[in-house]
Structure formats: C-alpha cells, structure tokens
Write a structure and sequence with these properties.
Layout (H helix, E strand, L loop, with lengths): L1 H20 L11 E4 L1 H9 L4 E6 L6 H18 L3 E5 L15 E6 L2 E7 L6 H20 L1
Parallel strand pairs: 1-3, 2-3
Antiparallel strand pairs: 2-4, 4-5
Helix pairs in contact: 3-4
C-alpha cells in the first residue's frame, strides 16, 4: 500500500512539473520579429492564437518614433524570449479587423485581445523602454502566473 502511494505521488509530482514548465509555451520563442500580412492577421485571430502584435504607424511622418519603438520591441522580445508579430499599416493599405491602434502593442490570448499598450506620442527611449517592460511584466502576472 505504501509503495502504491509513493508511485502515485511521484506521477502527480512529475505531471505538475511538466504542466508548470509548459505553462506559457504558446508565447515562448527566440525573440524573433515576424511581419504579418493582412491575411496572416486574419488567420491569427480566427485560429485563436496567442501572442504579441505590434501595429506600425500608417503615416510616414512617424518614422523616427517607429524606429525607436521597434528597437525596444526587439530588445524586449529577446529579453523575454518571445516572438513578436508586427503588422505594417503603411506597407499594406488593406483594412484589417484588428482591435488595435497604430503604434500599439496588443497581447492576444486565444485570438482575443486581453491587453494593449499605446506607444503613440511616447518619444523618449527611457519612457518607451519602461512602458514596454511594464507591459510584459503585467501580461506575465495577469495571464501566466
């Protein structure tokens, strides 16, 4: 009887360790930036995927802000070991049904937007870095812990 309990306890322990280790597997990655087409965005939502999406500004006037934001997104993606999806509104003039503003990062869980960080009009690197780091921290706390 004691051996049986021990074996059951071991199996339960291994199962718990496995589940914890795989907990946020859907957003894990190598810090890659992956550009999505309008069709890719549509599929992302329809297939109820989980991940981070950044929508680039559709205006050419914000190009310097865009470079700053993309540098911070790349830094954060590598630091957090997640892949980041990017949609370039300027490159694709096609309308997409995505509940996300220009120059915003959205966190989607099973195809549904759960959190958004609007970075428009934030033009100092330290502010952008701070906001992006806080966003990741909040998403981890709210959805994966």
């Amino acid at each position: 009887m004691t051996v049986k309990r021990f074996l059951v306890s071991c199996v339960c322990f291994i199962l718990i360790v496995f589940l914890v280790a795989c907990g946020n597997r859907e957003i894990n990655g190598k810090g890659k930036i992956i550009e999505l087409s309008p069709d890719d965005i549509q599929a992302f939502v329809e297939e109820q995927k989980t991940g981070f999406i950044y929508v680039k500004d559709a205006l050419e006037s914000g190009i310097e802000d865009e470079k700053l934001i993309m540098r911070e997104i790349e830094r954060a993606a590598k630091k957090e070991e997640v892949n980041f999806y990017v949609f370039d509104q300027y490159k694709y003039e096609k309308y997409i049904e995505l509940d996300l503003h220009s120059q915003s990062i959205g966190f989607y869980l099973n195809g549904e937007k759960k959190s958004e960080l609007v970075l428009a009009r934030v033009n100092e690197q330290s502010q952008v870095e701070k906001k992006v780091d806080e966003f990741f921290k909040n998403v981890k706390t709210d959805y994966f812990e």
